[in-house]
Amino acid sequence: MELLQNIWWYLVLIGVMILVHELGHYWAAIYFDVKVETFSFGFGPRLFGFRRGETDFRFSAILFGGYVKMAGETPGEENTAGSRALTSKPRWQRMIVAFAGPAVNMVLAVALLTGLFMVSYEKSPNPNSPVIGYVAPDSPAAKAGVREGDKVVQFDDTVDPSWDDMRMKIATNAERPLPLWVERTGERVRLTLTPALDGSAGWIFEIAARIADYNTASNIKAAQEAGLKPGDTLLSIGGRTLRSNFAVNKAINAGGGNPLEVVYLRDQKEYRTTVTPVKGSIEGKERWMIGVSLADPVEIVKLPLPRAFTEAVRKNVQFAGLIVNYLGGIVQQKVSPKAIEGPIRIAQMSGDAARHGFLSFVILMAGVSLNLAVFNLLPIPILDGGVMLILFIEMLMRRDLDLRVKETVVKVGFVFLMAVVVFVIYNDIAKIRPPG
Question: Is 2 exposed, middle or buried (0-12, 13-18, 19+ CB in 10 A)?
């Protein structure tokens, strides 16, 4: 049953993506009076479909993508449709036709997130003068010398940055050294931060460590016996100031099981108590625990349309930067291409997202739409980006490339694309296949 659900939601997801993408090409072609011969879901042999006007709308055997076939599009067919052939149109019009597909995918990604943020937006504490609450070991921030409690006063060319400013700069500057100035014990310190390839720095902002509930699953009641209650905000444990949820576990483990003084806030009043950690196990790893679950600092709010649109654009720009950085890492052999998800894994994610809820499916759809747009803009023959590159070269040369060159480029592009399809499918099977 789960397999059938995955297949169904994959077809829904990919169906919408292909429809939107190819409609972009189709609308642009119709606008410039280009004859559209085929509008296909998938590649390969025709399975079924219908004809409307001069266009064959069809489903093809390999449901991995889709295409719009225009008259005169393939090298050697230039004279089949006269003035309505694609190649009879000015190059700038052909470039718009090629760009229209990815452009509509970008619009869809922004539209989906805009609608989502108007219903549900995860708002986290976001101070304008950010203080570092936690630095992950061996992270870019740790290697740069950033410490918990540092206040960021300038990041690259941005003075008094917000966390949004910092996230955007990190996401779009992977593996590029960035100057960072922090305020530490009253002094201004200059550091150099080099974000990781995945667009992360390995730090989080300072947030209150608030108890959400007792952790009944662990059967440890140390916090409860010490008088701590859900809703209390932990200020320090064992003399260690708490600037994040991560710091709580760090402070508890540092005590080695000895009684620890806890300073906490309740109803805006400060209290003190003593708690004695108990050794417990999480995922097979032993550590000292006091038996509480900490609250997620994220707050769910609804954004007005203008703010939702602005935030959707910002998120898509940030994600697009991450995608480009990741693809660049593959080319430079810094990242394994095995992390690429193919149709089988996307089907799994589609089913999982749909079962988790409509909003999760919308998030996945927006992400896939943006990925499709970026991928199609790559300067690879047969992709939209490759078509645009050839048109750009011809515009510079002020003449068409030799027909044999175009035919060779298209063949190479097709072979490359099929090789990518085979690789990602094999990779997907390897990921879901049980070990041994």
Answer: exposed
Question: What is the H or E stretch that residue 310 is in?
Answer: helix 305-331
Other beta carbons within 10 angstroms of residue 206's beta carbon come to: 20
Distance CA 307, CA 39 (A): 37
Amino acid code (one letter) for 23 = L
Give the count of beta carbons closer than 10 Å to the beta carbon of residue 143.
15
DSSP states along 159-197: ES--HHHHHHHHHT-TT--EEEEEEETTEEEEEEE---T
Q: What is the CATH number of domain 209-294?
A: 2.30.42.10
Topology (CATH) of 132-205: Pdz3 Domain (2.30.42)
pTM of the model: 0.73
For residues 75 and 115, what is the distance between their CA atoms, to the nearest angstrom? 42
Mean pLDDT of 188-208: 86
User: What are the E-state strand segments in 245-289?
Assistant: 260-266, 269-275, 278-282, 285-289
Residue labelled with tokens 């995918």: 105
pLDDT tens column, 387-398: 899 899 889 988
